[in-house]
Amino acid sequence: MAVSILLFIIIFCVIVVSHEFGHFIVAKKNGIKVNEFFIGMGPTLLSFEKGGTKYSVKLLPIGGACVFEGEDGLKSEEGDFSEGAFPNAPVFVRIATVFAGPLFNFITAYIMAIVIVWACGVCLPVVYDVTDGGQAQAAGIQAGDVITRMDGKKIHMWEQVSLISLTNQGEPIDLEYERDGEKYEVTVQPAFSQEDNRYYVGLQGRGEIISCTPLQVFKYGYHTMEYMVQYTIKSLSMLVQGQLSKDDVSGPVGMVMIVDETYDAVKETGMVNVILNMMNIALILSVNLGILNLLPLPALDGGRLVFLLIEAIRGKPIPPEKEGMVHLGGMLALMILMAIVLFNDITKLF
């Protein structure tokens, strides 16, 4: 377990540092003063100062921040924001600075996806087999067919086929496939399984795994990240609609357990496989962090972007004290949610 905790901390640091570095580098490039750049929460374990910025590592691996001068809306004793304060920067510079955090999460995820695809190849959307008497067979689909579109979405990898099939709630699926150079379009009506409590399209096995050329690595690295984005958005949608329960949500403790299970499953196959599997977890978490931070909720980057976009449209900012109250309420709600998720993680251990 000690190794798994260390691996989780490394993964956590990579995705949080990449996020906060996005804010940091854009702020620095545009003359915004960064007071502190820290990883973790709670008491400070170690810190140093360089270039007017304090860099810190804190005790609890549950977050991080890039703190800008004047970000809290407080003015200096002279009654104005100090030079280099966040509010003094042009509004579109502030928008770019806030947006850069999630953007760097996606860039980090893309780099990891490239490495994973380069090392492992990619699974093409080639039908391995169809269920005898199943819906796909009834629609005329055969082994060897290449699925090119599902519900109007272009398909590049088998994982995309699996995601649409797995999350289907009984809606007909418009499916396009290719056979011997010819394209065909069919509509498949998934069948419900009482035993598994889910709908099945009738496709079996996985697609065809191929090694990628250097150019294909960049292409399929992007599609791998794109798939993770689709997976995350679909999961959030299902959670909001009540199709997922609280047991499907994991916090830091739950993530340590996932890392531990993954490490135990692959450690006998060598260090390379351990690294690739940890990178895959980091890829998923990096995409999750990027998307969650773009949600238009108070205290998150998405919530701050809403206020900045309103300022850009109306030509003047929302009064800082009012914006501060909204974000404070959002932060309190976020802390309560984190406590609930942590409690839920702990109850899963018993």
**Into how many domains do the coordinates divide?**
2
Q: Rg from C-alpha positions?
A: 23 Å
Helix percentage range: 40-55%
List the secondary-structure elements in sequence, H or E: HEEHEEHEEHEEEEEEHHHHH
Strand content: 15-25%
What sort of overall outline do the alpha carbons produce when their principal axes are compared?
globular
The beta-strand count equals: 12
Taking the alpha carbons of the first and last residues, their distance comes to 16 Å
Biggest beta sheet attributes: 4 strands, antiparallel
Q: What's the mean pLDDT score?
A: 88
Structural class: alpha+beta
Low-confidence stretches: none
**How many H/I helical runs?**
9
**In which order are the strands of the major sheet placed?**
6-5-7-8
What does this structure look like?
The chain is of the alpha+beta class and 350 residues long. The chain has two domains: 2-119 and 280-347, no CATH class; 123-210, PDZ domain (Pdz3 Domain, Roll), CATH 2.30.42.10. It is built from nine helices and twelve strands. The chain has helices at 2-29, 91-120, 135-138, 158-166, 214-240, 252-266, 271-294, 301-314, 320-347, and strands spanning 34-50, 53-68, 122-124, 129-130, 146-150, 153-154, 173-179, 182-188, 191-193, 198-200, 203-204, 208-210. The strands form five sheets. Strands 6-5-7-8 form a four-stranded antiparallel sheet. A two-stranded antiparallel ribbon has the order 1-2. A two-stranded antiparallel ribbon has the order 3-12. A hairpin with a 2-residue loop joins strand 5 (146-150) and strand 6. Helix 1 (2-29) packs across helix 7 (271-294) and helix 6 runs antiparallel to helix 7 (271-294). The chain is globular. 29% of the residues are buried.
